[in-house]
């Protein structure tokens, strides 16, 4: 394997063409950085432990001569591997010619007195000591001066320009490439000074003196340097460290004024380590990683910081109601919830379900779930309506712009993954798009996810499992009205049919007032943001219109009713009911029929040999003239079994 790095941008295309045209190139592709080329070739004649070094040098020297650039020596490790890289123009040549070990010879060692090309790494050991003696360090305010002097010396010591450029890009990753390369080009334009000064012979002595002067940095020194270079904070919502460059540390860079918070990456951490080394600090990378993982990095919760910075709510203006007024829903004929205006009670009123009341509870629940890890928002606010009615756009605008990065979507993928679980631990709102196309199996998985309090999984490339709280709240959007398929119950859903929504992109949404009110209601002990089991049962009528029709439910309503007053009924079993409709193509089961009978309120009598339902069979005339609404009125749904009768704090 050959790794060609540090290629001048203006030569990259030409060198890539040369490598691809070489008959020995079996596989050629651009590396993951986008700035290098990797080549894989075949070797015949047997590669052993004894001759591997010779073979590697022979093949790499071939491509070095071909390209006229220095090859990365890191690939000489026999166990070296390559990460997966995306290159649509990669070359694969199965018929490529192989190198033969029979014609290979070891590199000749240079004779005494023969000029040896000076590498950038070797020269820098001397140059760094010289610059330190002159009082010049790679530190805020002197980056440009340091880099210019460094490559002025590499030119005089005879370091090839291509080698210097490749080394510079590796050594100064935090310095913008578009500024670094012109500096090197300017220094090497002094061709009369190239290789005019021999590298001092006392390299080892200088190195020893230099190493002895580099005392191991203390924790206090590391903290002082970092505080003048970067800001760090631990985002307790995403469980990620975030960093921000300090503008004063980059006064010689135009982009300093645009510093912003971003997640800490390996690249940023490595760049910080390099800056500390250039500043003369002997710091181990593991020590730096340990420091950043300690309480040196203060915790920060984006939602709490946002809420604490808001002015107090006036206690009267209903900003959430204004937000809800943007959504024009079809009125439900059913009648459960309306929040009492005094906010001192949560009584049920015999008025249609108001979207504003449901939205208010859901939003307070969202805040509670994000701030209190013992709380989980167990209901899904759902908007169903035609395409282009701003359903998804409205969901996107529930969070204010400052928190918009904590909104994410999940489209129908036919399965729930481990990544979906981790999404629940680092976002505030998850939108389930196209919920009406989600298969029943995924809906069942979703039902379990919504109520899950913690995620205990191992992250990709992680060593141990993590224990993270579920903080996200779910919303959903879809086009088809009847999308609920779970015949065991749909108490987790709060669906509404949308007629139209005012464009959130053009609306002036009063986020400050909305979240001041939401935070105040969360802190109000008299405001209950969860639904009791009684309220959920009363919501059942509203949710029913979104359920996929259940054939067993319809058949029972059509052919049976409950006895009225002193009327005597007949006893029948679930099996007998199935047998009566056995000539249909419907797939009925004992479980489905039994569940439907219980929900419809039929009385069950237990005998020694079987369980019977007390029913009255409808006459043929009743069946022919009975309307569905009349059947439901005659058989109002009863309450669910007692095990369901528990309050649900989200």
Task: Give the name of the CATH architecture of the largest domain.
Answer: 3-Layer(aba) Sandwich
End-to-end CA span: 56 Å
Strand content: 5-15%
* Count of helical stretches: 23
Gross morphology: elongated
Biggest sheet, open or closed, and with what strands and sense? 6 strands, mixed
CATH superfamily of the largest domain: P-loop containing nucleotide triphosphate hydrolases
Which blocks of ≥5 consecutive residues have pLDDT under 50?
A: 203-213, 248-258, 335-350, 637-650
β-strand number: 22
Q: Indicate the structural class.
A: alpha/beta
Key structural traits:
650 residues; alpha/beta; 5 domains; six-stranded mixed beta sheet; four-stranded antiparallel beta sheet; 22 strands; 14% strand; BT4734-like_N; Virulence-associated E family protein; VapE-like_dom
What order do the helices and strands come in, and which of them pair?
Elements: E1 2-4, H1 9-21, E2 27-30, E3 37-40, E4 43-44, H2 52-67, E5 91-92, E6 99-100, H3 120-133, H4 143-156, H5 161-171, H6 177-188, H7 203-213, H8 219-227, E7 230-235, E8 240-245, E9 262-263, H9 266-278, H10 285-292, E10 299-300, H11 302-308, H12 319-324, E11 327-329, H13 355-371, E12 380-384, H14 391-396, E13 407-410, H15 418-423, E14 429-432, H16 440-451, E15 454-458, E16 465-469, E17 473-478, E18 493-501, H17 511-523, H18 533-544, H19 551-559, E19 560-561, E20 570-572, H20 574-580, H21 590-599, E21 604-606, E22 611-617, H22 620-625, H23 628-634
Parallel strand pairs: 4-6, 7-10, 12-17, 12-18, 13-14, 14-17
Antiparallel strand pairs: 1-3, 2-3, 2-5, 7-8, 8-9, 11-18, 15-16, 19-22, 20-22, 21-22
Helix pairs in contact: 3-4, 3-7, 4-6, 5-6, 13-17
Domain BT4734-like N-terminal: 1-91
Domain Virulence-associated protein E-like: 357-545
Region (Disordered): 629-650
């Amino acid at each position: 394997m050959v790794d060609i790095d540090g290629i001048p941008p203006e030569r990259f295309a030409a060198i890539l063409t040369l490598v691809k045209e070489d008959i020995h190139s079996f596989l050629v592709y651009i590396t993951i950085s986008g700035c290098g080329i990797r080549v894989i070739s075949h070797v015949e004649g047997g590669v052993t432990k004894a001759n591997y070094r010779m073979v590697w040098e022979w093949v790499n020297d071939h491509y070095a001569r071909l390209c006229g650039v220095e090859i990365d020596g890191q690939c000489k490790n026999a166990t070296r591997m390559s990460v997966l890289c995306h290159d649509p123009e990669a070359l694969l040549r199965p018929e490529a010619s192989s190198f033969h070990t029979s014609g290979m010879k070891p590199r000749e060692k240079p004779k005494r007195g023969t000029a040896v090309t000076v590498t950038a790494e070797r020269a820098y050991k001397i140059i760094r000591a010289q610059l330190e003696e002159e009082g010049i360090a790679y530190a805020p305010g002197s980056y440009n001066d340091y880099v210019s002097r460094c490559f002025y010396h590499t030119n005089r010591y005879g370091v090839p320009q291509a080698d210097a450029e490749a080394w510079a890009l590796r050594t100064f990753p935090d310095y913008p490439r578009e500024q670094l390369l012109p500096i090197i080009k300017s220094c090497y334009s002094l061709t009369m000074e190239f290789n005019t000064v021999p590298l001092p012979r006392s390299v080892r002595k200088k190195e020893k003196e230099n190493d002895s002067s580099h005392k191991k940095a203390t924790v206090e020194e590391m903290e002082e340097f970092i505080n003048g270079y970067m800001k760090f904070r631990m985002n307790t919502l995403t469980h990620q460290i975030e960093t921000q460059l300090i503008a004063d540390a980059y006064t010689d860079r135009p982009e300093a004024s645009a510093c912003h918070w971003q997640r800490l990456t390996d690249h940023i951490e490595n760049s910080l380590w390099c800056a500390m080394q250039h500043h003369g600090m002997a710091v181990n990378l593991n020590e730096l990683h340990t420091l950043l993982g300690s309480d040196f990095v203060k915790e920060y919760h984006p939602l709490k910081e946002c809420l604490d910075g808001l002015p107090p709510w006036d206690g009267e203006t209903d900003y959430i109601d204004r937000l809800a007024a943007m959504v024009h829903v079809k009125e439900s004929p059913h009648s459960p919830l309306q929040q009492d205006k005094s906010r001192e009670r949560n009584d049920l009123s015999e008025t249609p379900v108001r979207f504003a009341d449901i939205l208010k509870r859901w939003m307070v629940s969202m805040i509670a779930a994000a701030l209190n890890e013992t709380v989980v928002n167990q209901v899904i606010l759902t908007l169903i309506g035609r395409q282009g009615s701003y359903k998804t756009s409205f969901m996107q605008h529930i969070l204010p712009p400052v928190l918009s990065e904590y909104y994410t979507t999940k489209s129908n993928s036919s399965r729930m993954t481990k990544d979906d679980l981790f999404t629940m631990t680092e976002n505030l709102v998850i939108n389930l798009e196209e919920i009406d196309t989600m298969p029943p199996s995924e809906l069942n998985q979703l039902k379990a996810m919504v109520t899950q309090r913690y995620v205990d999984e191992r992250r990709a490339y992680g060593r141990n499992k993590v224990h993270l709280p579920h903080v996200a709240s779910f919303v959903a959007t879809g086009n088809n009205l009847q999308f609920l398929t779970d015949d065991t119950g749909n108490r987790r859903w709060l669906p509404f049919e949308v007629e139209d929504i005012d464009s959130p992109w053009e609306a002036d949404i009063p986020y400050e007032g909305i979240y001041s009110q939401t935070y105040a209601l969360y802190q109000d002990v008299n405001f209950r943001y969860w639904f009791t089991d009684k309220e959920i049962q009363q919501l059942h009528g509203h949710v029913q219109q979104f359920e996929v029709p259940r054939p067993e439910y319809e058949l029972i309503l059509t052919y049976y009713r409950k006895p009225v007053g002193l009327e005597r009924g007949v006893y029948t079993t679930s099996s007998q009911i199935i047998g009566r409709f056995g000539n249909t193509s419907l797939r009925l089961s004992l479980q489905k029929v039994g569940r439907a009978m219980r929900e419809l309120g039929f009385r069950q009598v237990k005998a020694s040999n079987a369980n019977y339902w007390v029913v009255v069979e409808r006459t043929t005339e009743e069946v022919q003239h009975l309307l569905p609404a009349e059947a439901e009125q005659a058989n109002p749904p009863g309450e669910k079994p007692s095990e369901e009768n528990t309050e649900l704090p989200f």
